[in-house]
Amino acid sequence: SMQCVPGLVLALSSLLGALALLQLSLHLRVPSRYGKHEERLCRPRGRLPARCAWFLQELPSFLVPALLLALRSPPRLEPLGCRLLCCLFCWHYFYRTFIYPFFTRGRPFPLQLLFFGMLFCIYNGFLQGYYLIYCAEYPNDWCTDIRFTSGLLLFLLGMGINIHSDLLLRQLRKPGEVTYKIPQGGLFTYVSGANYFGEIVEWFGFAIATWSLPAFAFAFFTLCCIGPRAYHHHRYYLKTFTDYPKSRKALIPFVF
């Protein structure tokens, strides 16, 4: 039976923090080359349809914690706070794996980025699942703790923003269309990266609710990974559309 090794949790969390800083340094000035930032001369080989790619990339983040839970003997059912936190993580990735991909209308996805995305989802799925299922210790009244309740509210708010923003983006395109248009409605009224803002809020809420190093490392990684992408999206819109609202910020309403 697998046992908790605190040193492993610390090492994996620290590495995740280092990977976050690496992501930030690589993409602060140059965006990842896919979607609207793809080089026009880039040949469309080595790609998968967006729906298939998203499904394969996100699947490990759902399967790995589920497998860790299945392998634990006896199964961990207490305390309630621990069970709920694990469910929140799996809930997000159930949506991202089994619902989101079948509605997306994105362009074909590069296999190289898919490979690294899958590796990350395996890594992070193991770290978060391993910590919550084998290492986390919460008091029986954790569900009433201000950290849990405020974090849960942030998580639900962020997930709601993320899902609603994805819906608005999908509605911009008719089936078969690949052109980019100005997002309208919802939080897009204030920021160019409303979907990214929602996901960042979601994972910082999760980090507060778990009050753990692995979750804060993941939230920091999310910020460093998709924060710059929101900034590059913002610049793209400003450069491409002359009528793009000048009052919009890149990521954080009224600030940035």
Entry summary:
By secondary structure, this protein is an all-alpha fold. It has helices at residues 6-27, 50-71, 80-98, 111-135, 146-171, 194-210, 213-240, and strands at 47-48, 109-110. The chain is built from 7 helices and 2 strands, in the order αβααβαααα.
Keywords:
2% strand, 62% helix, two-stranded antiparallel sheet, mainly alpha, 256 residues, 2 strands
Structural class: mainly alpha
Major sheet details: 2 strands, antiparallel
N-to-C CA distance: 48 Å
Q: Stretches where pLDDT falls below 50 for ≥5 residues?
A: none
Shape: globular
Residues in β-strands, percent: under 5%
Helical residues, percent? 55-70%
Strand order of the largest sheet: 1-2
H-E string: HEHHEHHHH
